[in-house]
Amino acid sequence: MEKRARFSVLYRLTGDEATALNKAKDICLEQSVEFPGDLLPEGFIREHIVGRIESFGPATASHETAPAYHANISFDVETASGELTQLLNVIFGNISIKPGITVESIDLPDSLLRQFQGPRFGREGLREWLGVPQRPLLFTALKPMGLSSEELAKMAYQCALGGIDIIKDDHGLTNQVFAPFEERVSRCAEAVERANRETGQQCVYVANVTAPMDQLISRARYAKAAGAKGLMVAPALVGLDAMRLLAEDDEIALPIFSHPAFQGSYVTSPGNGIAHPALFGQITRLAGADAVIYPNFGGRFSFSRAECKAIARGTEMPMGAIKPIFPCPGGGMSLEAIPDMLDVYGRDVIFLIGGGLFRHGPDLTENCRYFRQLVESTLVSEIA
Amino acid sequence: MEKRARFSVLYRLTGDEATALNKAKDICLEQSVEFPGDLLPEGFIREHIVGRIESFGPATASHETAPAYHANISFDVETASGELTQLLNVIFGNISIKPGITVESIDLPDSLLRQFQGPRFGREGLREWLGVPQRPLLFTALKPMGLSSEELAKMAYQCALGGIDIIKDDHGLTNQVFAPFEERVSRCAEAVERANRETGQQCVYVANVTAPMDQLISRARYAKAAGAKGLMVAPALVGLDAMRLLAEDDEIALPIFSHPAFQGSYVTSPGNGIAHPALFGQITRLAGADAVIYPNFGGRFSFSRAECKAIARGTEMPMGAIKPIFPCPGGGMSLEAIPDMLDVYGRDVIFLIGGGLFRHGPDLTENCRYFRQLVESTLVSEIA
């Protein structure tokens, strides 16, 4: 048999052994030829194009009652056609509609990985960009929607003065009349620069460029010209491949922050979808993000501590030349959670605190200073 | 209070009354300001920007054991910023990550609907385009992946000769070396035209243009120039808004077929996600598709008869000037299922049969003729 490169996907299949094995066999056909197996022509298509079960065995953890199996299934590299869209289609296209199938992880050979640039900055590059070589990074969001550009810019100034590293638009701020995109982005970028001149630090403003497809790149260019030093995009709203396009644009060349809006359905249903580290780690990296925002455990969302740890692992697991990226746990985080989070994530983390910053006291700049001191002092006490 | 236009979303919330009501209140904040309610400034933001519960009551059907409630929640039209991406963000952005929430339906005022063109053709326009005023339409797919462009074109010719109305690329055919996009599309379009000259019918070839973002529009233009008379795209792979952009392109101006690959996670988990008629009906129409492909009941996927009926309703429910579109049930359909499907869907349906066409006999053209006769004779016997 001719030797051809293959990539593989580890699926978790619910059901007893016979049911799960049937699911695995079905995936081999459904995700490649989508054709009845017995009607396939002999030769090349059967031998190479149809998926192949490389291993199959029980997956049930001891605390689970329903049985489940792991199937590692490989596909010919050419089925993905060097396209992120088609790679995702082979991994989880039609079977996203079949219950009881979860993508646990993907394993791509170098020949396929080389077809993707991945994150431009990655962890190391982002630390350099921000001038923060070691400690966890501090991240906040400008909100609520309904404030004017001037009010948002004032808030950005106050946060930058307080020592925050990264200040982003709330993900709901796009181009509303209250704070139109160009006006908001210019004012916020300018406000952060003004604070930087006073503090001597290099806080960055990250503009939300989640937008209609025909405006995504132009908004990103505008943001860069206006002084934004990073871009946020929600890949489930614009398409994962649009994030890749943004990340690969050599003229824009800014760090990309991935936001999970509209993406939750892939992970909220146990037994269906894409496992947290595969979605927020591996796939997000392939799609070019330098940092991935997701809801932390203990906040107002439902991710568990184990799931968050798994995401952090997914952001750094080896993927050829595709760089490790920063996990950005957020979503209803409080300042009190910081020591525990440091314990879980270590130093290579970006703490995203939005509303929780306002709760600490009436002076936003003071609250930011407290946030930064809390992170720094916890680190010192860790070392001591 | 100033009068401002609002749109509303009907959510289904699992849990007892207090839990569900808390979820509804949470949605009002999460999907608009994403900010602690007690810290919001008085005035405009509280009065208009925060979501508003318009109604709340039990939703549990008699056969269900777990309680659930319906909340109808309204949002200021300006929060959506006239953008499909941001409208989806308000409807289901962050709460896609919170379990026990389903989007049942959306209700948009004319002022918002007018910001979207919707399907260019719709049901009536597609019937005119195809020259088939009344009967159900016949749809098949070229596969399996791994065949050469020449082999796929031969198959297209045979199907067109047999009286199929619409012949599409399988959704996994993009730009693989076995059948590169330009070569495949040219040959298949030419083959269908050749058959049309022989039959005097007007079968159309639909090219799959699901592609990397920077190639989507150029592939669509190529396909049109090569003679394709329709385009297929998987909106969950390229982004729903990319489908809208394709549909609104006045130079391309071809019917758009929406494919559900990678979209299943929104509907596979009971209690989470987006209800079938909202996703495959309302949202798909807003995003510009003229026909929506989804797995039929009784095939190899898991949608129920009731869910399929609901999708069909969603494709035609009133939405201002946004046209009704065709449901295209497919996915492991057999020819034997046709009479029952006619019973469920009536005449305004596109029957998509792929592998099932090959099973009937060795001569593909004969199989297609049988498919067409089956549909026509069932209609005649219905009338008799």
From TrEMBL, chains A, B:
SUPFAM superfamilies: RuBisCo, C-terminal domain (SSF51649), RuBisCO, large subunit, small (N-terminal) domain (SSF54966). Signal peptide: none annotated. GO terms for biological process: carbon fixation. Residues 126-361 form the Ribulose bisphosphate carboxylase large subunit C-terminal domain. GO terms for molecular function: magnesium ion binding; ribulose-bisphosphate carboxylase activity. It comes from the Bacteria. It holds the Pfam family RuBisCO_large. InterPro entries: RuBisCO, RuBisCO_lsu_C, RuBisCO_lsu_C_sf, RuBisCO_lsu_N_sf. This is Ribulose 1,5-bisphosphate carboxylase large subunit.
